[in-house]
Amino acid sequence: MTYPLIVLPFVVVTLLVTLATLRRPRFRQRMASSALTALVLVGLTLVFDNLMIAVDLFSYPQEHLSGLKLGLAPIEDFAYPLCAAFLVPALLTLFAPLPSKDTA
Q1: Is residue 16 part of a domain?
Q2: 61-83 burial string, b = 16+ CB within 10 Å, else e?
Q3: Is 90 exposed, middle or buried, given 0-12, 13-18 or 19+ CB atoms closer than 10 A?
Q4: Among candidates 86, 47, 89, 88, which has minimal Cα distance to 70?
Q5: In total, how many domains does the chain have?
């Protein structure tokens, strides 16, 4: 089970960075947008990973996988689009300057 262990740090960092934005403005809107983005990315991953595996463009050694699959695609493949959908907006939020109290 190598791939689940590789994915784990990405998921933990995404969760921590996303939670660090909890008190920033528009958290709920960002989470809703991230969830919608994640849904689209997971859908695309589902379609294209299954197609690429079906035509034998690549394969995974079974001993390195968790064994859970969606179609032909291992569940581990879906962690990266989920992380991207939440981590990128969270990082942008953390690196953006906070609005000054004068403009509020």
Answers
A1: no
A2: eeeebeeebeeebbebbbbebbb
A3: buried
A4: 47
A5: 1
Strands (E), the chain: 69-70, 73-74
Range of the domain at 84: 2-11+28-94
DSSP letter, residue 72: T
The token pair at 34 is: 């991230």
Residues 47-104 pLDDT 10s: 999 999 999 998 888 888 888 999 999 999 999 999 999 999 999 999 988 777 765 5
Q: Whose structure tokens read 């939670």?
A: 19
Q: Does any domain span residue 17?
A: no
Tell me the pLDDT band of 35, cut-offs 50, 70 and 90. very high
Residue pair 81/38 in contact by the 8 Å Cβ criterion = yes
